[in-house]
Amino acid sequence: MAKATSSKASNQPSDGLPVAANGTDLSACANGNCEVRVDGPTTIPVPGFSRINNVRIEQIIPGMVTASTTVFGLPVFSSTAVGGTIALNGLNVKIVAVHGNSAVLRLST
Question: Which stretch of DSSP H or E encloses residue 10?
Fold first, then answer.
């Protein structure tokens, strides 16, 4: 008899993070709407969106993410916990999940 597998298990890698819709493809964020996994400090390109050229994930620590960008040449930094959203000049970065120095982020306009 075949062993049944749970769909929940197939959507969660062994590290405990959910599978991001766009995987690790940061170019999927070019229009400001994506869900990606990042591992450690990462620059996510969002060219030309609301005068932001990119979002820099500065730090991922257990349960929290710090992100930055520049708006009109001025640096903007913000941190939030899992489930929270960082607002960067009309671009929202929701922290879906964090494990170790990896996170699943959902960017939306």
Answer: helix 7-10
pLDDT tens digits, one per residue of 64-78: 999 999 888 889 999
Structural tokens at position 37? 């996994």
Count CB atoms within 10 A of the CB of residue 56. Answer: 16
Which sign, positive or negative, has the C-alpha torsion 13, 9, 44, 88? negative
Q: For the purposes of burial, counting CB atoms within 10 Å of the CB of 75, is it exposed (0-12), middle (13-18) or buried (19 or more)?
A: exposed
Q: Are the C-beta atoms of 67 and 88 separated by less than 8 Å?
A: yes
pLDDT tens-place string over residues 24-43 = 999 999 989 999 999 999 99
Closest CA to 56 of 3, 19, 107, 5: 107
Residue type for 99, please?
H
